Amino acid sequence: MSIELNFFSPVQPIKNKLFDAIGINVFIKRDDLIHPIISGNKWRKLKYTLKKAVTQNKTHLVTFGGAYSNHLLATSAAAAQFGFKSTGIVRGEQVENDTIFLCKLHGMKLIFVDREKYRDKQTLFNQYFENNQEAFFVDEGGASPEGAKGCSEIMAELPEIYDHIFSACGTGTTAAGIINGIYNLNLPTLFNGIPVLKNGSFLQTEIELYLNTYHPFKLHTDYHFGGYGKTTPELLAFIKQFVADTGILIDPVYTGKMLFAIYDLAAKNYFKPGTSVLAIHSGGMWGILGMKDKF
């Protein structure tokens, strides 16, 4: 079984009067264009995970997420495309929404569990699939060394060297992969992570779990807007203006917070004149359907 997607993820400039006034060049890597559903870091984190499943002769992907999880949806689509069965163990009460509908459409079976039981994912996997030799555990969000390996490949695709690279951070896997890529290529680039969860400094440890060798990076923990899945009128206004100005769709959970941070840091003179900045668009845009009522 071949686990590959043929894609081209371009780097595009972001033009803005603020950036011109400061004298910095800002770009965005459009990983959202990798695939309509298996997009951005969702594909990068699944690529080597699926290859590992194949080497172990596993044919049934079992993974985890909330009712609006981009990872659940991406896994369901990847399973359908590459010939796996899939099951999603969903946190919280049983609901119907756009994400759940699309997961089911791709053949994913769903098991809803209460939030307390959901905390112990390995026990849940064992409860339902311990005797199923076909089942393969895929952690929430695709967090794994294989996921970090897939994300590290971003760096080799870049057309030039950037002073700063920014990415939203949820589990830390994407961040670790990018940092590994920076280290492997011996680049003078600083990785800047934007934790989307409140009190996101804990991600320092999570990122270090997947680093091949420690390499300096920076977390900006003040752009969570109240926590995971939380928004403010200021963030929503920024997203609407950004999309209208650029034609690039971003979401309130991940990419919106990351790009807001870049604009805010630029306004606060975080970047020296002549600096080049690259934002990683981590895809997962279907999740915005769960937040339509906020706009």
Helix/strand order:
EHEHEHEHEHHEHEHEHEHHE
Strand content: 15-25%
What strand line-up does the widest sheet have?
1-2-10-7-8-9
CATH architecture label name of the largest domain: 3-Layer(aba) Sandwich
CATH class of the largest domain: Alpha Beta
- CATH topology tier name of the largest domain: Rossmann fold
Radius of gyration: 19 Å
Counted by DSSP, the helix tally is 11
Query: What best-fitting shape do the alpha-carbon axes yield?
Result: globular
Overall mean pLDDT: 96
Distance between the termini: 42 Å
Number of strands: 10
Residue windows where pLDDT falls under 50 for at least 5 positions: none
Count of discrete structural domains: 2
For the biggest sheet, the summary is: 6 strands, mixed
Q: Which class do the helix and strand fractions yield?
A: alpha/beta
Level of helix content?
A: 25-40%
Structure write-up:
The chain has a six-stranded mixed beta sheet with strand order 1-2-10-7-8-9. The protein has eleven helices and ten strands. It has two domains: 11-37 and 145-294, Rossmann fold, CATH 3.40.50.1100; 41-142, Rossmann fold (3-Layer(aba) Sandwich), CATH 3.40.50.1100. The N and C termini lie far apart (42 Å). By secondary structure, it is of the alpha/beta class.
